[in-house]
Amino acid sequence: MMRIGHSRDRHPLKEGKPLRLGGIDIESEAGAVAHSDGDCLLHALTESMLGALALGDLGSHFPDTDARYEGADSAELLKIVAGWLKTRGYTIVNIDTTVFLERPKLAAYVPRIRACIAELLEVDKDCISVKATRGEGLGSIGRGEAVEAECVVLVQKRSGVAYL
Fold first, then answer.
1. Is residue 73 in a domain?
2. Domain residues for 16?
3. Pairwise CA distance, residues 130 & 138, whole Å
4. Residue 159: per-residue pLDDT
């Protein structure tokens, strides 16, 4: 059995804050304003995995009202949800992501982001797609006020594995 999950995450940007995407630090004048580390790419990916498992959204598991998650490392949250995926007998078939960010351009970072996600999820980087696009001056993305990421994940149930 195959299942698909989809999610989108957006954060406002603020000068002087760090920018982290896909588990790596990005050189930028502005970074995400968030309760956690603000890695919207890992947030979208983690929530996509939750969606594929029909387990709700990121906020229901790691609420921004809970002090335990203040400044949380999004990579650690991703690994928790990846564990839930494995426990339920699923493996990742492929991941397709898009980051929406006016600046900086992300092309030079994409190979490192793919490698980081592959390492975090213990999958081959060839099943991970990371794309980046700009807002072309339109909307909050185009004005450099926000960063957004969208993700689709396809998972497959391993044969002979029952939910524990």
1. yes
2. 2-157
3. 22
4. 78
Q: To which H or E segment does residue 154 belong?
A: strand 146-157
In 3D space, the residue among 13, 9, 24 whose CA is nearest the CA of residue 103 turns out to be: 13
163 assigned to some structural domain: no
Q: Tokens for 107?
A: 């092309």
Q: What is the CATH number of the domain that holds 47?
A: 3.30.1330.50
Which of these, 63, 89, 40, 133, lies nearest to 48 by C-alpha position? Answer: 40
CB 33 within 8 A of CB 22: no
Residue 152 lies in a domain: yes
Task: Please determine, for residue 162, whether its predicted confidence score (pLDDT) is greater than 70.
Answer: no
| Residue 43: both structure tokens together | 């947030």
Tokens encoding 108: 């030079």
pTM above 0.85, yes or no: yes
Q: Looking at the domain assignment, is residue 164 inside a domain?
A: no
Residue 164 has pLDDT above 60, yes or no: no
The number of domains in the chain is 1
